[in-house]
Amino acid sequence: MAVKEEFVNYINDQLSNFAPFETKKMFGGIGFFKDGLMFAMIGGNTFRLKVDDSNQNDFEKRGMTPYQNDSKKKGMPYWEVPLEVIEDKTELKKWAGKAFQVATKTKK
Questions:
Q1: DSSP SS3 for 20
Q2: C-alpha span between 10 and 27 (Å, rounded)
Q3: Mean pLDDT throughout 16-25?
Q4: What fold does the segment set 5-106 form as a domain?
Q5: What would the pLDDT profile of 40-77 be if each residue is shown by its tens digit?
Q6: Is the CB of residue 67 less than 8 Å from the CB of residue 78?
Q7: pTM given for the model
Q8: From CA 45, how far away is CA 85, in angstroms rounded?
Q9: Contact 106, 79 (CB under 8 A)
Q10: Is 102 exposed, middle or buried (0-12, 13-18, 19+ CB in 10 A)?
Q11: d(CA 58, CA 89)
Q12: 74-80 sheet: strands from edge to edge
């Protein structure tokens, strides 16, 4: 399923307080990168941020779930972002900052 350009543009605008970052098309989705590190993604028109033990509780408290690749039967460390966070640029900047910290810790 192709990612809708309008949705990508909306997420880019909502993340404008977290700039600079760049986006790249990847495997039918979009990856979000800061300083060369992927901290977020859009797949299936769902926006997700990178998660580890340091920020997982933020997502779980709001009933969010990790990305699941059905063909590989394996999860990935990217969790769906709650709509109320996406709609609040200030809050989204905080969540994106935490996701970038996760990406920084886990870089290879």
A1: coil
A2: 20
A3: 95
A4: Yope Regulator; Chain: A, (3.30.1460)
A5: 999 888 999 999 999 999 999 999 988 776 665 556 89
A6: yes
A7: 0.90
A8: 16
A9: no
A10: buried
A11: 16
A12: 22-26, 29-34, 37-43, 46-50, 74-80, 66-69
